[in-house]
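anyone seen this seq b4? input:
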Amino acid sequence: MKRRHLLHLMCGVPATAALTALAACGKRKPSAAALKPDAHVLAIGDSLTFGYGAPPDASWPVKLGELTGWQIENAGVNGDTSAGALERLPALLAAGSYDAVLIGIGGNDMLRGVSASATRNNIAALVNQAREHTPHVALLATPAPDAMRAAVGSLSDAPFYEEVAKSGQALLVANVYSSVLSDASLRSDRIHANAQGYAKVAQLLADQLKAAGWR
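predicted toks r here
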């Protein structure tokens, strides 16, 4: 089969546009439209979203709201898993109209030995449900638990977050939790931030959302 005809079949466009379309196939990006200054935002996650290890007014959803002016509902639950968040999300979405959803979950799955495929599937379902509610969905990558890497300050995001964000057309927020939790001065314990750490999470998150055109 000739190359131009193959490109035509792969992307479903006229052959004259195939070369351009090939680069775009499967690479649609999340909406970059800016949120309004008083946007209503849902932050769903685990103890890192809740703000464990710091006063209630020091959680990153609170600090992100101060930086952006957005009205952010903190739906973080200590000890929650991807399955638990998936069970909670429908009621949260049904109870409010959100301009954006921020998802940060999966750390407890990894700590408890839940299979990566199950965690990935649950997070993908979270992203899909959130995308049905709003085009503004961001996925905060969580670092893979590794005591040795944490001790030397070199935690890195679990790789499946990038895969899920790409397939679900969500905005990937990378290297935020991992960079903060790699710094002992920003932690309250081995796996949680302190007040300064959550403020840093909020600033890094705000920077990435701004770069993505959300604000």
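Residues 116-133 form the longest helix (18 residues). The beta strands are 40-45, 71-76, 100-104, 137-140, 171-173. kinda curious what u guys think
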